[in-house]
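>> received
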Amino acid sequence: EVQLVESGGGSVQAGGSLRLTCTASGFNFDSSDAGWYRQAPGNECELVSMMNRDGSTYSADSVKGRFTVSRDNAKATVYLQMNSLKLIDTAVYYCAADYGVGGNWNAKGPCSDAGLRGYLKAWGPGTPVTVSS
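>> returned
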């Protein structure tokens, strides 16, 4: 069974740090692209950061210089280190992965929407992050 399980979410004060962890099973993680989305109330699903199977990365402008994505293929795990957290980072964070061909990381809609989720082969259930002042 293909599965992604996130951990590390929680509550933190503005300026603080959190590290999200996503562990994969049921597929060859080495041959996958993996990353993180988030959805804040009233907003669409936003691609935050990802690392491709070749090691290249993408980060949204809103998190550049603050968030870092990394992966440990031996542990089938992708991480999101979040520093200098802001109130606007409050959201549910979702891990996603795609293997083979045909994945689309740029689809729009709610993160929970089956249509959007269908563009990638694996999604986690989400972990909430709350940043307070």
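>> Helices lie at 114-117.
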